[in-house]
Amino acid sequence: MIQKHQIYTLPSGAIVQVGRLVPGTADDWNCVFKHKEKAGYMVCFAGEFIRKYGKAMA
Q1: In this predicted structure, what is the pLDDT of residue 37?
Q2: How would you write 14-42 as a 3-class SS string?
Q3: C-alpha angle 17/42/11, rounded to 5°?
Q4: Which of 24, 33, 42, 49 is the most exposed place for a label (fewest CB within 10 A)?
């Protein structure tokens, strides 16, 4: 289950923090990069992508 404010590592090595569910969508999440040169950039990922490829950081 995807949790707000959870931090995930993607297969590329990028680190993102999940924000909130995108209004009007069933399972798209706003995220913010926390990784080096992309830090602060916003991106939207499908929940299925996060669950399949993201590795939650403890």
Answers
A1: 86
A2: CEEEEEEECCCCCCEEEEEECCHHHCCCE
A3: 55
A4: 24
Provide the whole-model pTM: 0.86
User: What does the pLDDT look like over 24-48, one tens digit per residue?
Assistant: 999 999 999 998 888 999 999 999 9
- Which of 52, 2, 54, 58 shows the shortest CA–CA distance to 33? 54
- Of the chain, the end-to-end C-alpha distance in Å amounts to 14
Tell me the CB-side half-sphere exposure of residue 57, using CA atoms within 13 A: 13
Does the pLDDT of residue 58 top 80, yes or no? no
DSSP β-ladder status, 55-56 and 42-46: unpaired
